[in-house]
Amino acid sequence: MSRSDADSWDLATSVGTTATMVAAARAVASLEDNALINDPFAAPLVRAVGIDVFTKMVDGDIDMAAVDADGTARVMTDVMAVRTRFFDDFFLDSAAAGVRQAVILASGLDSRSYRLDWPAGTVVYEIDQPQVIEFKTETLSGLGASPTAELRTVSIDLREDWPAALRASGFDDTKPTAWSAEGLLVYLPPDAQDRLFDNITALSAPGSRLATEYHPDGGAGLADRSKAISERWRSLGLDLNMADLFYAGERNAVVDYLPRLGWEVSTNTRPELFARHGRDFPTGDLVASLSNSLSVTAIRK
Ligand code: SAM
Question: What pLDDT does 220 receive?
Fold first, then answer.
C-alpha cells in the first residue's frame, strides 16, 4: 500500500518496518570482529518487535549468504555500520564542542540516548510517531536500560506542528542544538522536507549543528534499487514493497537548500567514510548508486 497524508504505523508495519530493518543491521554489525559500532540494544529491540525475518537475522538463524549471492545483506550491514558511526561521531563531536541539547528526528529504534557517553547536563529529544516512541520506551525500560542523558520523547508526526510539541517538552531555542535526520528524508513528501529544514533553522541558535544524508539519485535510482532489495527480502519472507514507502518526485537537494538557510555544509561520500574506517566500499550493481550518497554535516552561522 502506498503512502497517504496522515498515515501512521508501528514498528512492524509500513515505514515503521524500516526502523526495525536498520536496527537488525546494527545488531549484526555490532557483533563483527573489529566492529565500528556497539549497539547492545538493537538485537533485543528487534526481537521484541517480532518480525520473523529480522529476529532470525539478529539471532544468526538466517543464512544470508544463501540468498545473497551479490552480497546485498552484507552491504546493508556495512553501510549501516558506517552510517551509525557517522551519526555517533557527529553527536560526540558536538558534545565535545560544548553543545548540550540534541534532537534525534525520526528516532525509530535508535538507542543513542541509552548508549552514548553524553556529557552531564545534556538533554536529548527524540521525535517519532507515537507508537514507535511508546514501543521503544517500554521495551528498553523492561530491559532495565536507563538513558545516559536526560531523555525527553516527543510523540508526533513530522508532517505536523512538531516544533510546538518540541517546545512544549522544554526545548530551548536560545541554546545551540545538535540535530540528526538519519534515514528520514525519503519518507517525507518534498515540501515536508523543506518545511523540516525551515523549522530546524528557525529553532537553531548560532553554533547549532545538523547531520543528515543526501541521495542524489533519490528518484528513479532509489525506486529501482528498492525494488530489487524488496525482492530479496521477499524471498526471506518479508512482504514489504519499499518503493511504496518513499515519496518520489523532485525534491530540493539538501546540500543546496541548507546553505540558502544560512548553514555551512560539509559532505563526505560513502566510499570516503568507508576509507576513514579502513574499509573498502563494496562493488556491484546494487550498490553503485549508493556510492553517490553523501553524509552531510552543517553548522549554523
Ligand atoms: N533514524 C532511525 C535509525 O536510523 O535507526 C530510524 C530510521 S527508519 C529507516 C525511518 C524512521 O522515520 C522510522 O522510525 C519512522 O517512524 C520515522 N518517520 C518517517 N516519517 C515520519 C514522520 N512523518 N513522522 C515521524 N516519524 C517518521
Answer: 67
Q: What stretch of H or E contains 109?
A: none
Q: Inter-axis angle of helices 72-96 and 14-30, to 10 degrees?
A: 80
CB atoms within 10 A of CB 184: 21
Q: Which pTM does this prediction carry?
A: 0.96
The three three-digit cell numbers of residue 29, written as one number: 554489525
Q: Which residue from 87, 128, 158, 215 has its CB within 8 A of the most atoms of ligand 1, so it is best to mutate? A: 128
Is the pLDDT at 120 greater than 90? The verdict is: yes
Q: Which residues contact 46 (CB under 8 A, 6 or more apart)?
A: 20, 23, 24, 27, 54, 55, 57, 58, 109
Average pLDDT over residues 218-236: 76
**Ligand 1 pocket, Cβ-based, cut-off 6 angstroms:** 15-16, 18-19, 22-23, 106-110, 128-129, 132, 157-159, 182-184, 187-188
Task: Reply yes or no on whether the pLDDT at 242 is more than 90.
Answer: no
